[in-house]
């Protein structure tokens, strides 16, 4: 199908974008990679009167890493992140997620901020921003602000972005040199390569010596948004690397899922998710993360 008629504007700064959004709250959409928006427009499911093309904002197209943070510009594509060679070890999950995010044509065009703003619960970026304790820098008519990853997704395709706000970059804090070592892992299940995940997990483990000190475990694709499994994190935080911490993970995950009353993906049965898929995804992810920590600490 063809698009409905619309006006196209190419602003020169994030502040100009915010003003355009504020002046056209009910009729404007932002165009970045277009991998989610354009198909919806072609099907006439979305009919914006104004498209704000932000692809010319070069300052939002860079990846920067220092000793405190990794920051990714809003217009950086998934493929750029996938090919980024200086990814810190504690953010391994990002590289893993990019390798399974859609097909290469989508990764070449789709942008980090576009995926986040769309807030699909099956997408990788909302889960990564939560699992890796990330943050989102945004700018609106009232100026810039920072949204923590845990506060960003509100449910199905709904974020905490205000109508006049645009994502300018996202960031992830890096570990300080205090003897703590961190690694992360991401895995997902889809029916075909390149499809959205029907279920997936993000695991981040930190350890001081032999003791796991800070575990973050996120499941995504099975509910309205990615969720942390706090009981699993509490169990891991009382575990050590030398004694296999994955021994009881499967049963703990099953217990959490049974008690959560989560509405699972319609493509998967509840029993399959609870009894097999998600427990095994977490077990494999935690085992891989523990193995990485053991190698780095020579345990």
Characterization of this structure:
- The chain has 299 residues and is an alpha+beta fold.
- 33% of the residues lie in helices and 25% in strands.
- It is built from 10 helices and 14 strands.
- Strands 4-5-10-6-7 form a 5-stranded antiparallel sheet. Strands 11-12-13-14 form a 4-stranded antiparallel sheet, sandwiched between helices. A 3-stranded parallel sheet has the order 1-3-2, with helices on one face.
- A hairpin with a 3-residue loop joins strand 4 and strand 5.
- Helix 9 (249-260) crosses helix 10 (270-297).
- The longest helix is centred in the last third of the chain and has 28 residues, at 270-297.
- The radius of gyration is 20 Å and the shape is globular.
- It starts with 6 loop residues before the first strand and ends with a helix.
- The mean pLDDT is 87.
Average pLDDT reading: 87
Number of DSSP helical runs: 10
The assigned structural class equals alpha+beta
Order of helices and strands: EHEHEEEHHHHHEEEEEEEEEHHH
Extended strand count: 14
